[in-house]
Amino acid sequence: MNASPCDALGAGVGGFGEKPVRGLSLIPHAVVVWPATIAGVAFGPVVLLAVILPGLLMLMVRDRRVRAHALLAVALGAAIAGPVGRAHAAELSLDEALSIRNVVTEVQVALGEQPSEPRKTRAWDTARARASARPVTPTISVGAGKQELPGNGRIVLTWSEKTRGENPFSLARGEILTARGYAERDGSTLFLDVTEWERSKVANEKNEGFASRIGRFLEDWRNARKDLVRETSAFLPLNESALVVGMTLGDVTGLDKDTKDAMATSGLTHLVAASGANIALTYAFVTLPLLAFGVRRKARVVAGAVGIVVYVAAVGSEPSLLRAALMAVPLMIGRYWGFRTPAVNALALTVLTWCLLDPSLVGEVGFVLSVGATWAILALSVPLADVLQQVSGGRISRNLALVLAVPTVAQAACTPVLLLLAPETSVWAVPANIAAEIVVAPATVVGFAGILVAHVWPPLAMPFFAVSGAGAHILVLIAQVGSSLPGAHIALPVGATGALTVAGVIVLVGLTLWLRKRREVRLAIAFVAIVLLVVGGSRLVSHDAGDWDVVMCDVGQGDAMLVRAGEHTVLIDTGPDPAKLASCLDRASVESIDLLVVTHPHADHDGGIPALEGQWAPKSAWVCPLDTSTEPKLPRAEVEAVLAPRTETLGALSLEVVWPRSAEEARVVGAGEGGGEESALNDCSISMLVKAPGWSVLTLGDLEPNAQASLVRSGVVEPVEFVKVAHHGSRRQAPELYERSRASLAVIGVGENAFGHPHPRTLTMLERQGAVVKRTDADGMLAFDRTPEGWRVVPLP
Fold first, then answer.
1. How confident is the model over 702-725, as pLDDT tens digits?
2. Which UniProt keywords apply (predicted)?
3. pLDDT of residue 542
4. From 588's CA, which of 3, 20, 530, 565 has a CA 20 to 30 Å away?
5. Cα atoms in the 13 Å half-sphere on the side-chain side of 512
6. Could you tell me which CATH class the domain 101-210 is placed in?
7. Do 782 and 793 touch, CB atoms closer than 8 A?
8. Beta strand 745-748 with 568-572: parallel, antiparallel or unpaired?
């Protein structure tokens, strides 16, 4: 969730319960233009015709108000078309450039943090160091050409043992370097696997433009502010010190992963992200003392505006902060001249302005969450508070009703979007936010005072940070308790289906509360609720995959696939997590495993082996010829390294090994990929044609492009019904392999990851070839049953 009760203050508390003013409302225009802008950046500015053409038609209506709205819609669509077209062209060009196999990308960046050793939760993560950075120039070099970066983009650099250059840990935050390597893009973030790097002074000297110098100056200045707070609050425990910086300046560098996860589970992450709450507290921090000294309103507003500008400069360009800061402008103008600006209209103006200024920004998750939560607080919190008072028979006071209503509507507005990131929710999110708000606002204000005092004499600021740190400690306790209680991890349907389902339930609950006194409405809503409960409940209760020929297990970022014919079952890879593999085997009603195929020895493919005990202990196992680690893990199985060509039958199931043909070939092809031993192991992946009466599957492990191309040249690949896509759908694919296989169904085993899997280029390639794409991160566990009419796909999230 990205908003809080204080966000309402940042949006103008006067927005609560405001009577609509006469004039031209911008709300319907924002509702139409905002999604059209997001779609236009993705698909091209032609999408904006959906705004312009209806507007042109409405100009013929006689009603003057309708014509005014229509004229504004046409003007907005035309004005935004240019920026949207440029953003679309830049993103399309960048994606096409990065999609070229083995293309080298060169960037010049300023480090936003000192490189640190990542916490390796995945054994195959070979990163030595990782750091986020900002580009110091608007373009990067991709191959022989130059490409523009999204205006709000950032770059994440990853160093491995293979990276050439100095020790990355010698770098400090703010240093400028030139890095080269292989890049992938996810949204506005560019992930660069660094192959070589060097310190650079080019951006500091004559080649640096004026805008870059200003940007670097602000970056250095804000880093100095954060360093000052960190150094002065260093006497606090690490988590509390990091949260003090987070609550005041929106930077939680140093916060440990467990605490971050606990805050995310409890819905408290927004409390340490700079947003409308911080804008409101900054304004109050500046203006309330002036009010106490009798300073006039206009002077207070000007001082508050200056305070907000300084605060935004100190924090940086966070999407939610930019939204709140721009929204404050019309509100403060109204305050300066003595009239009230409708807060929801100001929010609509903010959205439309950012659509014009930076179309790429308005599709960022942080921006979407911020706008959604703020709108919900402004538009729905007062009606919900009224309902709570009525339902309680007046036993709940007005203030308490608002305290309950604000986080409830904000959480409801954010939940469908958050489900696209993580398909679960917590029943404790709203109570945790209510409890946290009691301490966060005063702790943040005291932290602001500490920052000012620290600029005068740092030791004098320590008492302020001690008080702020105490609030941070309470916040940590609330997060830990909220994440450990039963009901903190309620699984929900994944992907767009889950988001739409939850949104529908939220709307249903809202209608129930709003129209609860109308008997016919109550009956209709009750009927819909019963249907939803029966359908959803049957899905939740039923854990049996039923009849299936192939199952793709949902094991997170990894592969685990089951195939069977008759009484014979083959397991291809195990994923990284024994518990998740065991859950899949149980839900698929697997009684025994005849053969385990470990395509290659990386933990995302063999980490689940400990689950294969008792009835699931495999009778035999196949490994690739470079695998020396799997056999000791399977003391009861007959383990054999296999090479192509080889065909085995298990009842009606035929397994034809088509790759690798030798260990040396895997090494040579892997060396050509430029990744050393890691690529050699990927290119050692056992790839098979699995056949049964009526269907066939091509499995590809983690084969890299060169190995895939060699497989095509070998002539053994034939048309199949479906393919297990190589390497979790990474961008490194050989399209000719998929063209040769002609599969109508493509399955990707993938989970949450920092590698950009599956890559948009790969998804586009598969769709262009006519394949229906199924992926475990979006669809969960998938059971496939071949019927005379075709494949029946049963998602089991």
1. 998 888 888 888 888 888 988 999
2. Cell membrane, Membrane, Transmembrane, Transmembrane helix
3. 43
4. 530
5. 14
6. mainly beta
7. yes
8. unpaired
Say what the pLDDT of residue 117 is. Answer: 76
**Could you tell me the fold of the domain covering 550-791?**
Metallo-beta-lactamase; Chain A (3.60.15)
Residue 624 near residue 686 (C-beta atoms within 8 A): yes
Residues in the chain, total: 797
User: What is the three-class DSSP state of 63?
Assistant: coil
Model pLDDT for residues 108-166, shown as the tens digit of each residue: 988 877 888 765 434 344 567 888 888 888 888 888 888 888 766 788 898 887 788 88
Q: Residue 748: which of 701, 685, 688, 681 has the closest Cα?
A: 701
pLDDT bracket for residue 185 (50, 70, 90): confident
Contact 647, 655 (CB under 8 A): yes
Mean pLDDT of 280-286: 91
Contact between 696 and 720 (Cβ < 8 Å): yes
Rounded distance between C-alpha atoms, residue 381 and residue 9, angstroms: 13
| Total Cβ atoms within 10 A of residue 752 | 10
Percent of the chain with pLDDT over 70: 86
Work out whether strand 722-724 and strand 745-748 pair parallel, antiparallel, or are unpaired: parallel
| Exposed e or buried b per residue across 755-775, where buried means at least 16 C-beta atoms within 10 angstroms of its C-beta | bbbbbbbbbebbeeeebebbb
**Dist. CA 236–CA 461, nearest whole Å:** 13
The one-letter amino acid at 634: L
Tell me the domain boundaries of the chain.
Answer: 5-87+221-491, 101-210, 495-541, 550-791
Residue type, 270: H
Q: How far apart are CA 174 and CA 117, in angstroms?
A: 18
Which residue pairs, CB below 8 angstroms and at least 24 apart, start in 782-785? Answer: 782/551, 782/552, 782/554, 782/747, 783/545, 783/546, 783/548, 783/550, 783/551, 783/588, 784/548, 784/549, 784/550, 784/551, 784/552, 784/722, 784/745, 784/747, 785/546, 785/547, 785/548, 785/549
Residue 541 banded pLDDT, cuts 50, 70, 90: very low
Q: What is the layout of strands, in order, in the sheet containing 620-623?
A: 638-641, 620-623, 595-598, 568-572, 561-565, 550-552, 781-787, 790-796
